[in-house]
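Hi team, as promised in this morning's meeting, here are the two structures we talked about. I've kept the exact order from the run log so nobody has to guess. The first one is mostly here for context; it's the second one we should focus on when we meet again. Sequence first, then the predicted structure tokens.
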Amino acid sequence: MRNKRILVATIVTAGLAALAGSAFTASNQMPPDVVRGYGEQAVTGVVAESITYNLSAIKDNVDSVTLVLTGDTTGLTIQTAFNDDVPVTCDGAGAYDGIEDATTYTCTTDQTVDSIDRFVLYATD
């Protein structure tokens, strides 16, 4: 009977050691030297309540930007730019919400995240 207990204890100990060893060696592989962020935002011509960057599935690209601007800004031309790029006009008119007194825009873009230093939003008549 004593030999069976020692055998069971040895098997349990070996199993725990194998489990602990595999947990200790587990790791994640992350891309090296990837910066995901930007330095500043600039908004001219309107008050921005929120600016949301909609990323690709693997989070390496900004596919679009959702803007919520104060008031009814549907009569304005809304443009966005990253870094020192030429501003791009947002597609279509914004959706004005008279209850919240805000206009929402979704602007299509194609900008790699690791290249962003600055975001600019322009609103003109």
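And here is the second protein, the one for discussion:
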Amino acid sequence: MGYVSELFYKWGYWSASRPLTSIFIGLTIVILGMTGFINSQTTADPQELWVPPASRANIEQTYFNENFGAFYRIDTGWLTPFESS
């Protein structure tokens, strides 16, 4: 047997012989991993995700929106039947 397979064998044997301890350790790891979501925020604006707040593009976009109104791209198209005369 190789070193890795022997390591996994011992790990599996230990886990199977102590199921409650294995479950407790697994739940502890999951709970510790979930602590990163405590202060998480979500956004639907892709500009907030990809453009730094102090970048020139963001500053110019903010200026444009304040002076001329927000520009929205059309994301819905309408298809109608064409009638020939």
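Starting points for discussion:
Residues 3-35 form one domain.
The chain has a mean pLDDT of 85.
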